[in-house]
């Protein structure tokens, strides 16, 4: 179907591609709540277990068929994307429900909400549905992929829930781990003389997840820049820190004169780094420069993944912090430098996500960069009596002439280290 044509509610179209990208998009602006995409893989209208729910705290299905790829901002629009490899969807799965939830408001406050199905290979638009009539809903099923006679189809749904992501999840059989209001004390009920025998247990389709799904998420802002990891349940295991970015493609005007459009997409190389100070007084840096990748199970208890030059969804730059050793960490500054490919962070759409193994995801976006900055402080993690407090920094720094980005970060945060030139 054509890119300009939008589907009516209830309409369906064939999906001829083997793999698709599901893009949920909306207009950003003051007072617009944050929107998150999710997917539910269903058998007979329900999930088999909590593992069949793909969303920000559980971003990949075990089968590899569905992945939550994350947010993108461009101009005054935002999109959140799911990747669906239809060839890898287990045969027992009949439907994949594609939903959105609003955080901090209702969908009546979200302008221009739409869902698009794109061929993952060619990028061609296969289907589009624009939601027109949302009001008080805080969760919305925008569409679904479903099987018909061995082939996949997409249906535009447009059905809302006023009970948010919790209501959406529980409607499809997810058990949710959310704080419940305390019930008022009741007098003890009289015990029956004889309890009826329990019904025979039906064999489960799949083993249920060992712990209920946590739907809570924390978005740090200028107004609310800090969060305690202990309050989010993130006091043990590992915590993954991800930096995701997107650059705008620019076109060289002289390319057209040569009879072809030459896309200039700079080979941008960003490096995620961390300054650390341990409680025993040791200080250092974890970075790709000089192969100082750190270590997870010994000091500094921080490890950097391999170097990524794409900012690609689901990858980006990542480092991991071992929360089992919080007691040995005094403070960490997580920062990013431009190694090559740009003179500043302007036009860079970046999102930082901290995902504790046991606890809610913490995310924030970087502000627009308006200075010639080549180094940006992302987050400051401080040990506060055994609890790690995360503070959104999002500070663009401009190094003085001849001063390295690392040394600039050191001076700003008072680390007091000696620096020598390094390379990678």
TrEMBL record:
Please name the Pfam families in this protein's record.
TerD
Q: Which InterPro entries match?
A: Stress/Tellurium_Resist (IPR051324), Tellurite_resistance_TerA (IPR017115), TerD (IPR003325)
Q: Where is the composition biased (Pro residues)?
A: 180-206
Q: Which residues form the TerD domain?
A: 5-172, 220-344
Task: Note the Gene3D superfamilies from the entry.
Answer: sav2460 like domains (2.60.60.30)
CDD domains linked to this entry: TerD_like
Instruction: Give the residue ranges for region: Disordered.
Output: 176-210
Q: Which family does it belong to?
A: Belongs to the CAPAB/TerDEXZ family.
What protein name applies here? TerD domain-containing protein
